[in-house]
Amino acid sequence: MTPKFSELPVASNGLRSAWGVFGPEDDLGTVNFLTPKRVAAAATEIRTGERFGVTLPLDLPDPPFYDREPLQHTVFELPGNFLDDRLDGFYPQASSQWDALRHISDPRLGFYNGHSSERLGIGAHARGGIVVRAVLVDVARNGGFDDYSPTRTRVITVADLERILDAQVVSLREGDILLLHTGYVTAYLAADQDTRVAMQQEQTVPGLEASQETAEFLWDHRIAAVAADSPGIEVLPPQHDGPILHAQLIPMLGMTFGEFLDLGAFADAAAADRRYTAFFAAVPLNLPGGVGSPANAVVIR
């Protein structure tokens, strides 16, 4: 039986640790919550057959965030009237993407489950994909915040999540993926180039509070992964000097993050019929040792 967050041991860094919960050899972390039974149940969310690709083009955002180089795509001819193409300057985490469990380590303890960095590449998540029931938390529409802007810093607490879920009449189930719709990507896509450059430079973003309360909420609901339409899931810039959410969830709990998803069209459809759950499927690149991968994700309602 999976322990509650309060039952997890406190590591020497002061954070709760799920090392060993899924076995000493585990390299999947919370994706283990995706049991065959839960995946089969997720398929029942498909009712209308509407499909929403939630992955940005690989060349967006432009300019890239975090000092990455722009993607270069070259198309060339082969004998026999064939075309081929090549990508240069390809950063798998530059656009809509997944963080592998080797994306960040704890400075004292190392990587998730005590593994070497190489053991935790994104190829582990490519083995079975991330196939799950998705729950949209529409902060942009249902947050109820005064003067809300998707391009300004806004801390989203556990109380906020619970209030929004109640307003949407949605209950979390074990093995869900939580999709946080802040409106950031929608604002980015609607912006002119000067505004996009400013967004890249300022990085003032609504996001989850970097707290143990957030970690407890996600763990105790057995959330398999959490993803957002923002550069980092958590609020930016950080609002305190303690460990960021990435440091609390990825190396300590083995939680998978998805970032920069394009959730706008899905959120529009959910708002129209008040149905905030869907079937979600993604297959990260099978890149041995990869630190991340393009999202390759689709939502089906």
Task: State the major sheet.
Answer: 9 strands, mixed
User: CA-to-CA gap between the ends?
Assistant: 32 Å
Strand order of the biggest β-sheet: 1-13-11-5-7-9-10-4-12
Q: Give Rg in angstroms.
A: 19 Å
Helix % is 10-25%
How many extended strands?
Answer: 13
* Poorly predicted ranges: none
CATH topology: Glucose Oxidase, domain 1
Coarse shape:
globular
InterPro entries: KFase/CYL (IPR007325), KFase_sf (IPR037175)
GO molecular function, one term: arylformamidase activity
Pfam families: Cyclase (PF04199)
Organism: Pseudonocardia halophobica
Topology:
Layout: H1 36-42, E1 51-53, E2 72-78, E3 82-88, E4 97-99, H2 123-126, E5 130-138, H3 139-142, E6 154-156, H4 158-168, E7 177-181, H5 184-190, H6 193-202, E8 206-208, H7 212-220, E9 225-228, H8 245-253, E10 256-259, H9 264-273, E11 277-282, E12 292-294, E13 297-300
Can you offer a commentary on this structure?
- The chain is an alpha/beta fold and 301 residues long.
- It has helices at 36-42, 123-126, 139-142, 158-168, 184-190, 193-202, 212-220, 245-253, 264-273, and strands at residues 51-53, 72-78, 82-88, 97-99, 130-138, 154-156, 177-181, 206-208, 225-228, 256-259, 277-282, 292-294, 297-300.
- The strands form three sheets. A nine-stranded mixed β-sheet has the order 1-13-11-5-7-9-10-4-12, sandwiched between helices. Strands 2-3 form a two-stranded antiparallel ribbon.
- Strand 9, helix 8 and strand 10 form a beta-alpha-beta unit.
- The two termini are 32 Å apart.
